[in-house]
Amino acid sequence: MKTLGLDGCRAGWIAISLDEGNAGYWLLESDNELEKFFEDYDRIFIDVPIGLEDEKYVRECDELLRERLGPDYKASVFNPPLRPALHAPTYAEASMTSYEITGKKISIQAWNITPNIRTVDSLLTNNEEFEEKVYESHPELLFQILNGGSSILQKKATKKGLRHRLGLLKDQSKFADDFFRDIKEEYRRNQVDEDDIVDAMVLALFAKRSLDDELKTLPENPPEDSEGLTMAIHYV
User: Fold this and answer.
1) Same structural domain for residues 124 and 172?
2) Is residue 125 domain-shared with residue 154, that is, in the same domain?
3) What single DSSP character describes residue 231?
4) In degrees, to the nearest 5, what angle opens at C-alpha 143 toward C-alphas 169 and 83?
5) For residue 102, what are the CA distances in angstroms to 48, 56, 57, 110?
6) Which InterPro entries does the entry link to (predicted)?
7) Which of helix, strand or coil describes residue 156?
8) Which of 4, 130, 218, 222 could disulfide-link to 64, CB 3.0 to 4.6 Å?
């Protein structure tokens, strides 16, 4: 089975596979490219909200993830838009829809990732087979697991934080160091940031691990949204 980690970046998506015999990295700059990778891979861990509430402002999985990561990383977990606000043409309209239903507006951070949420939501709701292979995860939870269960003190935007995360990955995969260096050399910073690379790589690592280890979720018994998509953070 082929596995993949996917993280959003400025140019679209950075995709990484750490599979023996299939290891590689790719920059996906269109929805069609993303769909092709959904078709070609058997297990994908992706850092984007999957499954949206209709009326509740906070998904249970995001609430549990914040508790798991601790207060220093609460800001790294965004509340995605409600499904009724997902296709609003502007931030103002999306925020107004959210406010009318929940009494709270959408954050700018959540709005900035809404195009990626729309894309993945459309692919999953229109292709049932994708639901069995594409799983929402969160890089900071995965790095916490690699770090022995403790959150990393330095954020990934700092040099120390980035080096710590890359070091953890290098301990787990012979491809990590070369891929990090090669991606930095091949793509500009306005296409792919350094933290996008380590995030996609840890997602790839755990996607690969999930074929042999028990797949777990936050919450343990996740609910489905009104479109039948599971609202859960996946890890092993």
Assistant:
1) no
2) no
3) -
4) 125
5) 22, 7, 6, 16
6) DUF429
7) coil
8) 218
Q: Could you list the residue range(s) of the whole structural domain that residue 164 is in?
A: 3-49+136-209
Helix, strand, or coil (residue 158):
coil
Three-state secondary structure along 37-82? Answer: HHHHCCEEEECCCCCCCCCCCCCHHHHHHHHHHCHHHHHHCCCCCC
Residues 189-212 have a mean pLDDT of 97
Residues 124 and 229 in one domain: yes
179 pLDDT band (50/70/90 cuts)?
very high
Q: What is the pLDDT of residues 216-227, one digit of tens each?
A: 999 999 999 999
pLDDT by residue (tens digit) across 56-70? Answer: 999 999 999 999 999
Where b means 16+ CB within 10 Å and e means fewer, 98-130 reads: beebbeebbbeebbebbebbebbbebbeeeeeb
Torsion of CA 99, 102, 104, 105, to 10 degrees: -50
What would you report as the CA-atom Rg of the chain, rounded to the nearest whole angstrom? 17
φ and ψ at 27, to 5 degrees?
A: -100, 120
Taking the C-alpha atoms of residue 229 and residue 227, their distance in angstroms, rounded to an integer, is 6
Q: Note if the bond before 219 is cis, omega within 30 degrees.
A: yes
Q: Residue 214's pLDDT is what? A: 94
In a domain, 86, yes or no: yes
Considering the domain architecture, whether residues 69 and 128 belong to the same structural domain is answered as yes
For residue range 131-151, list pLDDT tens digits in order.
999 999 999 999 999 999 998
* 54 domain residue, yes or no: no
